[in-house]
Structures are given as C-alpha cells and as structure tokens.
Amino acid sequence: MDGLSVLGCRAGKPVIAQLKRYGVFAGGSAFGAVVDYIVTLVAVRALGISPETALALAMVFSATAVFFWHEHLTFGSKGQPGLSRRYILFMLWSVVVWGMRAGMLFLFRMAGMPLYAALALAIGIASVVNYILSSRAIFRTTHQR
C-alpha cells in the first residue's frame, strides 16, 4: 500500500478530488476542534476537572455536529440508506478518537508541553486518522464500493 492509499486515495479517485474532500472534512473537523478546544479549556478552569475528562465532555457535543457536517457536506451521504448505522459508527469511532486525543494529551503534558499547545497538537494529529477511517468505512456510500 502506498502513501496515497493510506490517505484514502483509492484507485479511480483522483488525488486532487481526495484532497478537496479532505479540505471539506478538515473544515468540519476544525469546527469540531474549536468546540472541543474552547469547551475543554473552559471546563478545566470552571469545573476543575481533568483536561481528558473535559475533552470527553466537549466531544459529546462536537461529534454530533461534525457528523451532520460530514453527512451533508463532506461525503454527500444525505439521502443514502443507513443514516442510523453511520451515526452509530461515527459516535463509536468518536470514542476511539477521544482515546487517541486523551492519550496524546496526557503524554504531551507529561513531556512538559503547555495545555493549550498539547491540546492543539493532539486534536490535529487525530484529525488525519479520523479522515482515513471516516472516508473508508463510516461514510462509504454504495456508489463508492
């Protein structure tokens, strides 16, 4: 498997089209990341909870909003059968994404990074992995199989 295949660029799908789709995906992810970032920082200060717990709280809200962004804009799955299945898979996948983010956040903070930088880096790295799985499994429509 070459590097382009890993990034979701399948045979018959031009690289430019995949990069454009990733751009739209990144827009939805950026929206979710802003929600995650702000809610996490506010919850840590206001509620005195750990950053990892605050991030989980934030992702409850952001994951649903981002799902509908991807459903309507990124992958054009609106109207395709299987909305409930895609939503459940996306929410389950969001738990895994939280685990990746929380693990990286913990490690980056242990390495001495400030919270704001560690959080931004963890969210950014997880976004690439999220796109790969989302485009290949969750939002894969019947015409893409």
Describe, in plain words, how this protein is organized in 3D:
With 145 residues, this protein is mainly alpha-helical. It has one domain (3-144). The chain is 78% helix and 0% strand. It is built from five helices and no strands. It has helices at 3-6, 15-47, 51-74, 83-110, 115-138. α4 (83-110) packs antiparallel against α5 (115-138). The longest helix has 33 residues, at 15-47. The radius of gyration is 16 Å and the shape is globular. Residues 1-9 have low confidence and may be disordered. One of its GO terms (cellular component) is plasma membrane. Belongs to the GtrA family. The chain crosses the membrane at residues 22-48, 54-75, 87-108, 114-133.
Number of strands: 0
Strand content: under 5%
The major sheet is characterized as: none
What structural category do the secondary elements indicate? mainly alpha
Span of the ends, CA to CA:
18 Å
Spatial extent as radius of gyration: 16 Å
Broad shape: globular
**Number of helices, where a helix is a run of at least 4 consecutive DSSP H or I residues:** 5
User: Can you give the mean pLDDT?
Assistant: 82
Written as H for each helix and E for each strand, in order along the chain, the element string is HHHHH
Number of domains: 1
Low-confidence parts lasting 5 or more residues at pLDDT below 50? 1-9
Percent range for helical residues? Answer: over 70%
